[in-house]
Each structure stands twice: as structure tokens, then as C-alpha cells.
């Protein structure tokens, strides 16, 4: 029912666009393709910041007008503060990937609080100031009992090219392009040089297909999703 109404509205909007367009453009647009809604997608990078690779990725994203989300390892931030400031200044979302990249499942509550709290307080807030730093748990997992420990949303992914293992830009690109759909959250690692190459090629290819790269927070907002603390977001369409 909702879908039917939406289709009707979309058709009406299309007709209005065509009718209101100058005649030359009308012929072109009516004859070639339907108007396309923007396809939003979120690229996410884990395990940085790294002095050797993250700067090159930030340069490439800036050239392409693409936003991304970075989940940082707390103990790697000292010495890389400039990269972290650039992320925020250039419109990216910065998040928390624990202090030591520990597997949270099986860790005690005090350890979880310390891994998240130290990264927030000793690193992210010290460099970027106060903020809500969303969490990506290493390996994407927390127990149901641990969810109450988090005061921010948790971020998973639904496209995983296994780039940290493949370390092969061609295969990364193919793995992402063959799976990606609007609303997806893509997992990559700016700690791997081949992943930086692949990510920039993925941006080029998908921007040519009409995709726009936004942060995870923007992706959810654009999709009408209100993020909740302790809930795990896999895409704009799926949360657990
Ligand atoms: Ni990781």
C-alpha cells in the first residue's frame, strides 16, 4: 500500500519534472532515462589512523568530494593527531574502534568501559573535543548483555570485501562492486595500502553510477532512521 502510494507520487513528480522542463530537454530526458533518486552509500575504514596510508586516502576522498567514516584505534592516535583533525575538518565521521583492538565479546564490563572510555577521553575528545563517537566493535560483535554499556549507536556493515586478507585492489573493487546497493555500509581498512587504492577506484566507479558517499550518521538520517544507543546498524535497512 505504502509502496503503491510512493510509486504514484514518484510518477507524479516525474511527470511534473518533464512537463516543467524546457522542450529540448524534455525530449532528451523522456527519451533516454528515468530520473534517478540519489543512491547513498557509506564507506567505512577501520584500524587507522596510520601515518603511511591514511593521508593518501584523505587526499583522494577530498578530490572526489566523498565523505567516509573512520573507526580509530585509540592507542594509534598519539602522533597522528593531524590526520584525525583532518578527518573531522573535511566532513568525515570519526568513531571509536577500542583502545587496543580487543575482542569485546567475552571481555568483562570493566574492560569494555575502559577500552571505549579511554579511546573517547584520552584520544578522541582530547584531539577533537566533545562529541558522540559511535562505536564499531572489533570483529563486529558484542553480546546482547554488553549493549547497555554503550551510550552511542554501534556500527556493523553489510558489504565486506575481506580487504585486510586479500590485499589486492582489483579483487577488492570487484567484491564491492558486485555486492553494493544503495543504503549499504561498506567495510574497508585504511591500514592496508591496496585498500586505499581500491577505495578510491570504488568511489570513482560508484559516483559515475550516481552514488553519493556519505557518513554512516548521514546515511541513517537520509534514510529516516533514528539511531539508538546500543543498537547495531548493518545498513540503512537493517539493524539488530
Ligand atoms: Ni578492526
What secondary-structure arrangement, pairings included, does this model have?
Layout: H1 2-20, H2 23-32, E1 39-48, H3 54-64, E2 69-72, H4 81-89, E3 93-96, H5 109-128, E4 154-155, H6 163-166, H7 169-177, E5 185-189, H8 193-208, E6 211-213, H9 216-222, E7 232-233
Parallel strand pairs: 1-2, 1-5, 1-6, 2-3, 4-7
The structure holds nickel (II) ion.
Q: What is the β-strand count?
A: 7
What structural category arises from helix and sheet content?
Answer: alpha/beta
Mean pLDDT: 89
| CATH superfamily (homologous) name of the largest domain | Glycoside hydrolase/deacetylase
Short description:
Helices cover about 45% and strands about 10% of the residues.
Account of the protein in words:
With 240 residues, this protein is an alpha/beta fold. The protein has two domains: 1-36; 38-233, TIM Barrel, CATH 3.20.20.370. 44% of the residues lie in helices and 12% in strands. The protein contains nine helices and seven strands. The strands form two sheets. Strands 1, 2, 3, 5 and 6 form a five-stranded parallel β-sheet that branches. A two-stranded parallel ribbon has the order 4-7. The protein starts with a helix and ends in a 7-residue tail after the last strand. The site of nickel (II) ion has 5 residues, from strand 1. Residues 46-47, 97, 101, 138 line the site of nickel (II) ion (NI).
Amino acid at each position: 500500500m505504502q509502496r503503491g502510494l510512493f510509486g504514484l507520487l514518484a510518477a507524479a513528480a516525474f511527470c511534473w519534472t518533464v512537463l516543467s522542463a524546457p522542450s529540448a530537454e524534455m525530449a532528451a530526458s523522456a527519451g533516454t532515462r528515468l530520473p534517478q533518486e540519489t543512491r547513498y552509500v557509506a564507506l567505512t575504514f577501520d584500524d587507522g589512523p596510520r601515518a603511511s596510508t591514511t593521508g593518501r586516502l584523505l587526499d583522494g576522498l577530498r578530490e572526489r568530494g566523498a565523505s567516509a567514516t573512520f573507526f580509530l584505534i585509540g592507542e594509534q592516535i598519539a602522533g597522528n593527531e593531524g590526520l584525525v583533525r583532518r578527518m573531522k575538518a573535511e566532513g568525515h565521521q570519526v568513531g571509536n574502534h577500542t583502545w587496543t583492538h580487543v575482542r569485546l565479546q567475552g571481555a568483562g564490563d570493566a574492560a569494555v568501559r575502559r577500552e571505549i572510555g579511554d579511546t573517547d577521553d584520552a584520544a578522541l575528545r582530547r584531539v577533537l573535543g566533545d562529541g558522540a563517537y559511535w562505536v564499531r566493535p572489533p570483529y563486529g560483535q558484542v553480546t546482547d548483555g554488553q549493549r547497555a554499556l554503550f551510550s552511542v549507536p554501534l556500527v556493523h556493515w553489510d558489504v565486506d570485501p575481506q580487504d585486510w586478507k586479500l590485499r589486492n585492489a582489483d579483487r577488492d573493487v570487484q567484491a564491492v562492486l558486485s555486492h553494493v546497493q544503495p543504503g549499504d555500509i561498506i567495510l574497508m581498512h585504511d591500514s592496508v595500502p591496496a585498500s586505499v587504492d581500491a577505495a578510491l577506484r570504488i568511489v570513482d566507479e560508484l559516483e559515475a553510477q550516481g552514488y553519493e558517499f556519505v557518513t554512516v550518521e548521514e546515511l541513517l538520517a537520509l534514510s529516516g532512521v533514528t539511531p539508538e544507543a546500543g543498537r547495531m546498524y548493518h545498513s540503512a535497512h537493517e539493524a539488530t
